[in-house]
Amino acid sequence: AGSKLREVFDKINNLLSGKPVQTEGQAVSVTQHPQGLEFVCYKLAEKFVRHGEGEVSFHHDSAFPIAVVLSGIWELHPRVGDIFLAHLHKKCPYSVPFYPARKEGTSMEEYQRMLGYEVHDSKVEEQDHFLKRMSGMIRLYAAIIQLRWPYGNKQGAHPHGLSYGWRWLAQMLNLEPLADVTAMLLLDFLEVCGNALMKQYGIQFWKTMFFIQKSYIPRIEAVTSSGQMGCLSRLKNFVQKCLQAEEIPLPKGILTPSFWRT
């Protein structure tokens, strides 16, 4: 509910603003310790990224309520946004976007961690689980860049708005594609913020969609084995439908004005 989201936002904002906040039956304040504020910014940013790789990866619609709160907090407390991006880029290098290359002397285990895989006791997480987490984080990022907290003053620009999404898309299309990962990330990103990018960039956006269909999808196909075609097929269908309809559908779960009256 919109009212519940406002409560969550106010509590986080009050905590970061140095006001006492009730939690688990006691009042806490960042002023109680010299590094209190820095610690809270760090842990809060880390928690938002965890929501991306956990909650959003399983429930795609949850990207929007989480993103709108973070967007508003980022506007009022830029430090949280900076640390959020640092956590996000470390957990999901594809959010930069960046495909780390293996350097000489780097162990396979260390390299897999650099690629975003979780490695415990030399056991690497399964590919499906890895892809799900990366998908959740990209979806959260794609939601953040298009949303603003509706009760802010909106005098300044969005702290990390659509221009960053446009840049992400351009940089992504300049990278050599990877099997599995590239098709999934592009599909997630376009499903979540394609509509907003279309409205903002118009003809330039459609040129990019045409480039994806004619030039980039064949390049993904060239590195994809027959057993990894699922996500690529969905990306192809999505791009084709959008180009035919000359429209990108609104993402599922987007927060409508009526949501804020609940």
Automatic annotation (TrEMBL):
Gene Ontology process terms (BP): poly(A)+ mRNA export from nucleus; protein transport
Major subcellular location class: cytoplasm
Gene Ontology molecular function: any one: translation initiation factor binding
Top-rank taxon, per record: Eukaryota
Keywords (A to Z) from UniProt: Coiled coil, Cytoplasm, mRNA transport, Nuclear pore complex, Nucleus, Protein transport, Translocation, Transport
Protein transport found in the keyword field: yes
Name of a matching Pfam family: GLE1
Family annotation (InterPro entries): GLE1, GLE1-like_sf
A GO CC term attached to the entry: nuclear pore cytoplasmic filaments
Subcellular location: Cytoplasm; Nucleus, Nuclear pore complex
Function, in words: Required for the export of mRNAs containing poly(A) tails from the nucleus into the cytoplasm. May be involved in the terminal step of the mRNA transport through the nuclear pore complex (NPC).
Family affiliation: Belongs to the GLE1 family.
Protein name (record): mRNA export factor GLE1
Species, as recorded: Edolisoma coerulescens
